[in-house]
Design brief:
With 113 residues, the chain is mainly alpha-helical. Helices cover 50% and strands 0% of the residues. This is IS30 family transposase.
Length: 113
């Protein structure tokens, strides 16, 4: 029974993740790269995602953070230099993701217990 269960597990495990997410969003990514490579445009990724969802509701569209993640990982032919709004944003170097507000929590001393 253990061998059969292991075979079934491995067979199901092969199908439980998306192999190539870029194929799923092929139409969106093709239009995105054309838009940002063709001419200098001051639109942001967020504006393009909203416009794509409005004009082409039948096609799958990733979320804005997903598109930025793909760009940062180098999966798309768009780089950060092609995005004027991303370069304008100044990232605060003090704030890192350490669990949200725990970084600014006020320490009042030891407990009385």
């Amino acid at each position: 029974y253990a061998d059969t269960a292991q075979i079934y597990y491995e067979k199901r495990r092969k199908n439980c993740y998306q192999r190539n997410p870029l194929k799923h969003y092929a139409v969106f990514l093709r239009m995105l790269s054309r838009r940002f490579k063709a001419k200098f445009d001051a639109t942001s990724i967020d504006e393009f995602v909203g416009e794509f969802k409005r004009t082409m509701p039948g096609y799958p569209c990733p979320s804005t953070p997903t598109v930025y993640r793909y760009i940062d990982q180098g999966l798309l032919d768009i780089s950060n230099i092609d995005l004027p709004m991303k370069l304008k944003r100044r990232r605060n170097k003090r704030h890192h993701s350490h669990g949200g507000h725990a970084l600014h929590k006020k320490h009042l001393g030891n407990s009385i217990e």
